[in-house]
Amino acid sequence: MKAAIVGSTGYGGVELIRLIQNHPYLEPEVLISSSQPGEPLARAYPHLIHLSCSFEQLDMERLCTADLIFFATPPGVSGAWAPALVEQGKVVIDLSGDFRLDSPDTYQEWYKRPAAPAKWLEQAVYGLSEWFHDQIQTASLIANPGCYPTAALLALAPLLKEGIIPPSSIIIDAKSGVTGAGRGVKQAMLYCEVNENLRPYKLDGHQHIPEIERFASLIAQENITVSFVPHLVPMNRGILVTIYADNMNNYTRADVREIYRQTYEAAPFVRIHENGWPETKFVQGSNYCDIGYHVDERTGRIMVLAAIDNLMKGAAGQAVQNANIRMGWPEETGLGFSPLFP
Ligand SMILES: NC(=O)C1=CN([C@@H]2O[C@H](COP(=O)(O)OP(=O)(O)OC[C@H]3O[C@@H](n4cnc5c(N)ncnc54)[C@H](OP(=O)(O)O)[C@@H]3O)[C@@H](O)[C@H]2O)C=CC1
Ligand SMILES: CC(=O)N[C@@H](CCC(=O)OP(=O)(O)O)C(=O)O
Asked: Which PROSITE patterns is this protein grouped with (predicted)?
């Protein structure tokens, strides 16, 4: 099948090229760049000099030569282009946040821009592969989750579904590498600003808060609110979330172990750490989400940790996993990379 990637000069886009180029059933046929049309891929990414493709202008007719279209673009781009592509019978997988929220007002409030039409927000299927597998199988428009929500929801969802933690006690402390902010030039992301520094940011309005709350509530079947504190850490890739919640009814470590075991026993990309806790190095370059937990009898809290590679399970890897689910291919197709360590 032919794939098109819009935003292929960005970090999410180049990770898609790497994955699709190694995928047995997908070809990276159309690589779109609005800033560098006509330029060879190797000019933007010399490590891909062995691939002799060039970037192309964003053009509807050209996009329609592909079967599957990935958007790895800033907010607003897929919202404008995806509906027409779906109407042409194409499958669209969107890595941006344009279709992750169901209310135009909520999108406007958190993204500070107008939303895509409500009809398309309602039609989009959330691409958290392990939890929305059945809906993804028939979806035309897949809203790939944000990087922080992927880690947070995979860690939280089993406990929420079982009603083990109360709806308002949840604190999510999250840390991301710098590729999470994209390849665009920003002063705050310069080496001297980021190196040897640990920076909390957007405590007062991160766009992933409504996304986490929407799907946590859906899974728990009650209204969930979370406190969310993201941090930027001086590393290229990786996200670690540490979640704190009250332990209702004193569930034991054995109870929690059984819940995670049962929930994820058939999930090829979720690994549970029974001894020790996940680290970002354990998942780097791979599509795994590693989860660990601690049932703290002293304080009556449960701590759950999840590590992902933000560009893989947090973006391009999960997008390819969703393409596999949608096309009926084995979920691991083209994603069988072991993590890079050290
Ligand atoms: N980085 C990460 O870890 C994650 C990112 N995401 C989301 O995925 C999307 C892509 O992220 P990322 O790759 O990091 O971002 P980058 O900034 O690295 O890349 C974005 C790409 O979009 C293209 N672009 C910019 N403006 C337009 C436009 N108006 N029309 C068409 N193309 C445009 C740019 O290429 P050009 O100017 O050449 O067209 C650029 O290459 C974002 O929405 C991001 O929030 C989601 C999960 C994780
Ligand atoms: C380190 C860093 O800056 N990370 C980005 C994550 C962006 C992302 O995943 O984005 P969308 O949900 O907007 O698509 C952030 O916190 O905004």
From this structure: ARGC (PS01224)
Q: Which ligand is nearest to the CA of 148?
A: 2
Q: For tokens 């957007």, what's the residue?
A: 202
Amino acid at 342: P
| Containing structural domain, residue 81 | 2-123
Domain with 167 in it: what CATH number?
A: 3.30.360.10
Span 135-180, pLDDT tens digits: 999 999 999 999 999 999 999 999 999 999 999 989 999 999 999 9
Please indicate, yes or no, whether residues 158 and 301 belong to a single structural domain of this protein.
yes
193 Cα to the center of ligand 2, angstroms: 18
Q: Is 147 a catalytic residue?
A: yes
Cα–Cα dist 145/11, whole Å: 16
Question: Is residue 240 within a helix (H) or strand (E), and if so which, with residue range?
Answer: strand 239-246
Number of structural domains, the chain? 2
Residues 151 and 119 in one domain: no
- Residue closest by Cα to atom 28 of ligand 1: 77
Q: Give the pLDDT score at 6.
A: 98
Confidence of residue 274 (pLDDT cuts 50, 70, 90): very high
Catalytic residue among 64, 147, 192, 289: 147
Length of the chain: 342
Instruction: With 0.90 as the threshold, say if the pTM is over it.
Output: yes
Please indicate, yes or no, if residue 92 is contained in any of the structural domains: yes
Q: What is the DSSP letter of 39?
A: -
Half-sphere exposure of 126 (CA within 13 A, CB side): 19
CATH number for the domain including 22?
3.40.50.720
**DSSP secondary structure, 145-175, as one string:** PPHHHHHHHHHHHHHHHTT-S-TT-EEEEEE
Q: Does 173 lie in the same domain as 270?
A: yes
The ipTM of this complex is: 0.98
Q: Is residue 165 within 8 Å of residue 246, measured between CB atoms? A: yes
The pLDDT score that the predictor gives to residue 223 is 97
Q: From the CB of 189, is ligand 1 less than 6 Å away?
A: no
